[in-house]
Write a structure and sequence with these properties.
The complex is a heterodimer of chains A (about 325) and B (about 375).
Chain A: H1 2-28, H2 42-51, H3 58-72, H4 87-122, H5 127-141, H6 144-158, H7 173-207, H8 210-217, H9 222-247, H10 254-259, H11 265-275, H12 278-306
Helix pairs in contact in A: 1-12, 4-5, 4-7, 4-9, 5-7, 6-7, 7-9, 8-9, 9-12, 11-12
Chain B: H1 11-14, H2 41-50, H3 53-75, E1 106-113, E2 128-137, E3 140-148, H4 149-152, H5 172-208, H6 210-225, H7 228-239, H8 243-269, H9 273-280, H10 285-293, H11 298-321, H12 333-342, H13 349-376
Antiparallel strand pairs in B: 1-3, 2-3
Helix pairs in contact in B: 2-13, 3-5, 3-13, 5-6, 5-8, 5-11, 5-12, 5-13, 6-8, 7-8, 8-11, 9-10, 11-12, 11-13, 12-13
C-alpha cells in the first residue's frame, strides 16, 4: 500500500510539473503588453519589467518561474487585474466566496441526490420514477448556465424574490444568503441529477441480485433487506463520486460565477483570460490542476483501500 | 453386410443399367425455408431502438434541427453578418402569431416624459399602442407606454424578425441556425477525431499488450490527469479562437475514454478461438485488428460517440462564455447565449431562443444515446 501511494504521488508531481511547464510556455509565449498605463513613465516601466525578468530570454524566465514556485511559493505578480499584487494573494482572497457557494451546494445536494435516486429505484416504473427520471434527464442535459440565466430572469427580474447578483456585503446574513441561493441552486442541479441517476441504476441492480433474494428467504422484511443489504452496497461507488465534490469545493464554476458576479475563482479565471493578465492565468491554471490532481489522488487511494483489486500499477 | 473395395467391385454391381435406379422417396426433400428475414445484431438493435418512443421523438427532433440549420439561414433573407444600426434589439415578431398578441413586435417602454410621446419625430405615427401607466415623478408627468417597436424603429411593414435582432441589428434567427450549423459541425468533427485516435490507440494497446500496453496506458493516464478545463483553455489560448482550434482542444483529452473502451474490448476478444484460428491461417496483425476484433467494439463505440455529442456542444458554448469561442462575426449557439446573457434583463428574447434550442438539442441527444445504449447493450438482448 505504501509503495502504491508513493507511486501515485510521483505520478501526481510529474503531472503537476507538466501542467506548470505547459501553462508557462503556452501562455507566456503569447504576445502581451504588460504595462499600458500612460501615466507611468517609460523608465519606471522598464525598471518594473526588469524586476520581473521580462527582458531575459524565455528559458531564463522559465528558470526564474520554476525557482520562484519551488523555493518561495511565488507565482508572480499580477499586471492587469490587480496590478502590483502578488498573484498568490489574489487567489487566496477569492477562495472564501467560492468555497461558501460550493459548500452550501454540497450541503443541499447530497441528501437530495441520495433521496431522489433511492425513491426512483424503489418505486421503479411507477409515475414517481418516471417524473424523477424525466427531471434527471432535463437537469443532466440542459447546461447549467442556461438554468442560471433562466432563474436569474424569472426569480430575480420578472418575479423579484431574489437579488440578481451575488452580494456578500448585504446588510444582514439572511440577505447575503438570499443572494447566494440562485447560484447555489444553479450549481447543484447537474450534480444532483448525475448522482441520482447513478444511484438509481446501482440500486436497481443490487435489488435484483441474488443475495437480496437470500436476505428475503432468510426472513428479512423487504424494508430490512433493502436498507441493510441493497442500500449500503450501492453507496460504496457513490462514496467515490462524492470525494471529487468535496475537494472540488475550492474551484469555482467559471460560467455561473460570471453570470451571478460572484467574486470567486471561476470569475477570476475568466477575467484574467479576457483581460490578458498572463501571470494570473498561469497561476490559476496551476491552482485548478492542483485541486483536480489531489482529487484524483484521494479517489485512487480510497479505491485502493476499498477495493484492493483496483490498485493501478500495484504488484499483483 | 459385405464391404466392397471401391476398385474391386463384383461384376453384377458394375454392370447395373442406369434406368433401373429409382428414388426411394419421390417427393423433393429440403430443409424448411425461413419465411422471415434473418435479423443480425444491428438490425435487432435498430428495431429495439425504433420501439423506444422517446428515442424516436429525439431522433426526429435532431433531424428537424439539422434540416433547419441547413435551410433557415438561406431563406430568412438576412445575412448572418448583415448589420442595421437603426434596427437594434428588436423584439420578435412572427406572422400569424402577431394576430393573437404574442410575438407581435411590441415592447413596453418605461419612464418616458409624457410631452415627448406627442413628438412625431421620436415616436412616429401609430407606433404608440396604449399608455399603460401614468404617474408623477417630480414635476414631470411620466408614462409607461406599449409601443410597436418595429414602427418605432422605422422598420418597413412587411419585415419580420422572428426572433428579433441583436445589439448590432443582426437577425437572430439567421444567426441562431447558422450558429447551430457551426456547433453541430464542431461536435461532429471532434467526436469523429476522438473516435479515430481513440480506436487506433486503444487497438494497439489492447492487441499487443505487454510493454507497449503499459507505456501507452500510462501515457494516457498522465494526459488524463490534466484537468479538462485547464487543457482546453491552454489549447484555446495557444491556437487562438476558431472552429479548428475548438475541435483540437476538445480532442486533446477527449480520445482517452474511447481508447480505454477499445482496449478493454480488445482484451476481451483477442484470446478467443476464432482469432486464434485466423492467426493460424496466417492473417496479418493489421487485418486481425480491424477485420476480426474491432467490429466487436462498434456497438459500445456508437453509444459512446452519441453521448459525446452533447458534451461537445456544451463545451463549445462554455468556451464561448469565457470568451474563447469561435471568431467573432461567426455565430455559434454559445456565442449567442453569452451575448444574450449581457442584455438578459432588458431583452430576454435574445437569450431565450438560443437557450431553448440548445436545451432541446442536448435533451434529444441524451435521450437518443440512452435509447441506443439500451438497444445495443448485449446484456439486455432478447429481453423486451
Amino acid at each position: 500500500m505504501f509503495k502504491y501511494v508513493l507511486g501515485r504521488i510521483g505520478a501526481m508531481l510529474l503531472t503537476l510539473f507538466l501542467v506548470m511547464t505547459l501553462s508557462f510556455w503556452v501562455i507566456r509565449l503569447m504576445p502581451m503588453t504588460i504595462f499600458e498605463n500612460p501615466e507611468v513613465s517609460p523608465e519606471v516601466q522598464r525598471r518594473l519589467e526588469d524586476r520581473m525578468h521580462l527582458h531575459e530570454p524565455m528559458i531564463v524566465q522559465y528558470y526564474y518561474f520554476m525557482k520562484g514556485i519551488v523555493t518561495k511559493g511565488d507565482f508572480g505578480t499580477s499586471v492587469k487585474i490587480r496590478p502590483g499584487l502578488q498573484v498568490f494573494d489574489i487567489i487566496k482572497e477569492r477562495i472564501p466566496p467560492t468555497m461558501l457557494l460550493n459548500f452550501f451546494s454540497l450541503l443541499i445536494s447530497i441528501p437530495l441526490r441520495i433521496l431522489s435516486g433511492t425513491i426512483a429505484a424503489l418505486k421503479r416504473n411507477t409515475w414517481i420514477d418516471n417524473v424523477i427520471s424525466f427531471l434527471i434527464v432535463i437537469f443532466i442535459s440542459v447546461p447549467s448556465f442556461v438554468f442560471a440565466s433562466l432563474m436569474q430572469y424569472v426569480f430575480a427580474y420578472a418575479w423579484p424574490i431574489f437579488p440578481t447578483l451575488y452580494n456578500a456585503q448585504a446588510p444582514t446574513i439572511w440577505a447575503a444568503f438570499r443572494s447566494m441561493l440562485l447560484p447555489i441552486i444553479a450549481l447543484s442541479l447537474n450534480p444532483i441529477a448525475t448522482i441520482a441517476r447513478y444511484l438509481r441504476g446501482e440500486l436497481i441492480e443490487t435489488l435484483s441480485s441474488e443475495y437480496m433474494l437470500l436476505a428475503r428467504t432468510k426472513g428479512l422484511t423487504r424494508q430490512e433487506a433493502t436498507w441493510r443489504h441493497a442500500f449500503r452496497n450501492s453507496l460504496v461507488p457513490i462514496a467515490n463520486t462524492i470525494i471529487p465534490l468535496i475537494t472540488g469545493i475550492m474551484g469555482g464554476s467559471l460560467v455561473i460565477e460570471k453570470i451571478f458576479a460572484v467574486p470567486g475563482e471561476g470569475g477570476l479565471l475568466v477575467d484574467s483570460i479576457l483581460g490578458g493578465d498572463h501571470f494570473l492565468t498561469v497561476a490559476l491554471l496551476i491552482f485548478y490542476s492542483m485541486i483536480s490532481l489531489v482529487t484524483i489522488f484521494v479517489v485512487d487511494v480510497s479505491y485502493g483501500i476499498i477495493d484492493p483489486r483496483i490498485r493501478i500499477g500495484g504488484t499483483k | 453386410m459385405t464391404v466392397y473395395e471401391p476398385n474391386n467391385l463384383p461384376q453384377e454391381l458394375l454392370n447395373i443399367p442406369q434406368g433401373e435406379f429409382e428414388r426411394a422417396n419421390n417427393d423433393w426433400r429440403s430443409d424448411e425455408r425461413f419465411t422471415t428475414e434473418p435479423i443480425g445484431f444491428y438490425k435487432d438493435a435498430f428495431r429495439r431502438l425504433c420501439s423506444n418512443r422517446m428515442s424516436m421523438i429525439s431522433m426526429w427532433a435532431i433531424l428537424i434541427i439539422i434540416v433547419l440549420a441547413i435551410v433557415v439561414p438561406n431563406v430568412t433573407g438576412y445575412g448572418y453578418t448583415e448589420q442595421n444600426v437603426k434596427q437594434k434589439n428588436l423584439p420578435s415578431k412572427v406572422p400569424l402569431l402577431e394576430q393573437i398578441g404574442i410575438f407581435d413586435g411590441t415592447r413596453v417602454l418605461t419612464n418616458i416624459k409624457k410631452s415627448s410621446i406627442e413628438d412625431p419625430k421620436r415616436y412616429p405615427e401609430g407606433c404608440i399602442i396604449n399608455v399603460i401607466r401614468e404617474y408623477k415623478a417630480g414635476k414631470q408627468t411620466v408614462v409607461d407606454v406599449k409601443v410597436d417597436y418595429y414602427k418605432y424603429c422605422g422598420v418597413a411593414d412587411g419585415e419580420y424578425h422572428w426572433m428579433g435582432t441583436d445589439y448590432l441589428g443582426r437577425d437572430i434567427m439567421t444567426r441562431l441556425f447558422r450558429g447551430t450549423r457551426i456547433s453541430l459541425m464542431i461536435a461532429a468533427l471532434s467526436v469523429i477525431t476522438n473516435l479515430i485516435i481513440g480506436i487506433i490507440y486503444g487497438s494497439i494497446a489492447g492487441y499487443y499488450g505487454g510493454r507497449i500496453d503499459m507505456f501507452l496506458t500510462h501515457l494516457a493516464e498522465v494526459l488524463d490527469g490534466l484537468p479538462y478545463i485547464v487543457v482546453t483553455i491552454l489549447f484555446m489560448l495557444w491556437l487562438g479562437s476558431g472552429m479548428l482550434s475548438i475541435v483540437l482542444a476538445l480532442t486533446v483529452t477527449g480520445w482517452i475514454g474511447t481508447a480505454r473502451l477499445t482496449r478493454a474490448q480488445f482484451y476481451r476478444f483477442k484470446r478467443r478461438e476464432y482469432v486464434l484460428a485466423a492467426r493460424t491461417l496466417g492473417v496479418p496483425d493489421r487485418k486481425l485488428i480491424f477485420r476480426h476484433i474491432l467490429p466487436n467494439t462498434v456497438g459500445p463505440l456508437i453509444t459512446r460517440a452519441m453521448i459525446a455529442v452533447p458534451g461537445a456542444i456544451f463545451s463549445e458554448s462554455f468556451l464561448a462564455y469565457i470568451g474563447l469561442g469561435i471568431k467573432p462575426p461567426q455565430p455559434s449557439i454559445g456565442i449567442l447565449l453569452s451575448e444574450g446573457q449581457k442584455v438578459l434583463l432588458q431583452y430576454p428574447n435574445q437569450t431565450f431562443f438560443p437557450a431553448l434550442l440548445i436545451s432541446i438539442l442536448m435533451i434529444a441527444f441524451n435521450m437518443l444515446s440512452n435509447g441506443l445504449r439500451d438497444a445495443m447493450d448485449p446484456s439486455r438482448r432478447g429481453e423486451e
